[in-house]
Amino acid sequence: MSPSSIQAVKQVVLPSGTLTIELHDEQVPLDTITEYAVRQNPRRGFLFVSKILGKHLPVKPSEALKHHCSLAKSLPLDAEGPVLFIGMAETATGLSASIFEEHCKLTGRKDALYLPSTRYRLGEHATLLFQETHSHATDHLIYPPQDPEKKALWDHARTLVLIDDEITTGKTLKALTHTLKAALPALQEVHLVCFTSWLDLPPAVLQEEFGLPVQIHALVKGRMDFTPNPEFAPPELPKVTGNGADKTPLIRKEYSRLGRLPDEHALPEHLQKKVAELPLQDRPILVLGTGEFAFEPLKFAAALENAGHQVVFHTTTRSPILPGEVIHSRLEFPDNYGDQIPNYLYNHHPAQYSRIMLCFETLPTSEDQTLADLLQAETVYF
């Protein structure tokens, strides 16, 4: 990247070290969509914390969806199909499903398939495995669909769209691309979609590294470096590996992990009724997703907002972040999938809200009510 294309340079000093960020292209100002924090992870001491993702910080559903739509519009409307969309667990499961849905609405295309990576085993289905080496939990699973219509789209996919909230080095997406390229010989091009991309490489180098032509679609593009603070003691990682058990008996309804078609799912009727009957509140409603289960709660939150309520949305997460900087508070509790892995909720202030709705894809358990009591929430089952 030539110096003339550098629009600005920003430094962020964290206890773990210093981020130096070169800004090359801002479709929106970086400071309006991103904050910073320290991971509880000795492999990577920094975290870009999105203000618009709805993962670690609450966001209005309309604000999140506005940016999802902007990214969906940036993809070519005439991409050669079938088009395979894949989102990265767990952080980008809501974002990626939303971009898939918005793009299919924009184009009207039906030859598109979405599925996310996941940390969970689901029955005896065949899987593709790849790793996110810097992550707190490295292994990702992808389930090639078995449904005949979805399998045909998967087998003949020509355009690949990979979605994450942020791209730093691109190593994870390169690993995934090579895994998919070996399984799907018809693939011809790759589109990387994210809020912020720091993967600053010429197109020819990207093509060589990914093995296919690559385009990057991001609200902010640039380059970053991290200089660790030698006096910072890297924190110990908590337990992040699940028990490997089949989670199928726990999940009430599987929405996406085995493949999702355009317009395949609508908000369940009992939740449509809840939206229609809920009186307007004097304070905002908080809708909380749980872990990988983000998109359906986001759509529920959006429906409440469209009905005239003040609403914000975010989710619990297995991503361990140290309090400080933008992370003002941290609650820790066991996951709701039976792995006994610590999960977290950040910046939770119950007194701000009239109601807190904690959303699950899993079957009810006594632990759910314990968590709801901790968060001062009511349980909502999809």
Summarize the structure.
Pfam families: PRTase_2 (PF15609), TRSP (PF12500). This protein has 382 residues and is α/β, with parallel strands linked by helices. The chain contains 9 helices and 19 strands.
Top keywords for this entry?
alpha/beta, 382 residues, 4-stranded parallel sheet, 8-stranded mixed sheet, Rossmann fold
Uncertain segments are none
CATH architecture of the domain at 266-381: 3-Layer(aba) Sandwich
CATH fold label of the domain at 266-381: Rossmann fold
Q: How many DSSP helices? A: 9
Which overall shape is indicated by the principal axes computed on the Cα atoms? globular
**Average pLDDT rating:** 94
Overall helicity: 10-25%
Biggest beta sheet attributes: 8 strands, mixed
Structural class: alpha/beta
Question: What is the helix/strand order?
Answer: EEHEEHEHEEEHEEHEHEHEHEEEEEHE
Q: How many beta strands in the DSSP annotation? A: 19
Strand content: 25-35%
Termini separation (Å)? 47 Å
**Main CATH class of the domain at 266-381:** Alpha Beta
Radius of gyration: 20 Å
Domain Orotate phosphoribosyltransferase-like: 35-223
Protein name: Phosphoribosyltransferase
Pfam family, one: PRTase_2
InterPro entries: PRTase-like, PRTase_2, PRTase_dom, TRSP_dom, UCP020967
Description of the molecule:
- This protein has 382 residues and is of the alpha/beta class.
- It has a domain of 116 residues: 3-Layer(aba) Sandwich (Rossmann fold), CATH 3.40.50.
- Helices cover 24% and strands 28% of the residues.
- It is built from nine helices and 19 strands.
- The strands form five sheets. Strands 1, 2, 5, 6, 9, 10, 11 and 12 form an eight-stranded mixed beta sheet that branches. A four-stranded parallel beta sheet has the order 14-13-18-19, with helices on both faces. Strands 4-3-15 form a three-stranded antiparallel beta sheet.
- Helix 2 packs across helix 3.
- It starts with 7 loop residues before the first strand and ends with a strand.
- The model has no long low-confidence stretch (mean pLDDT 94).
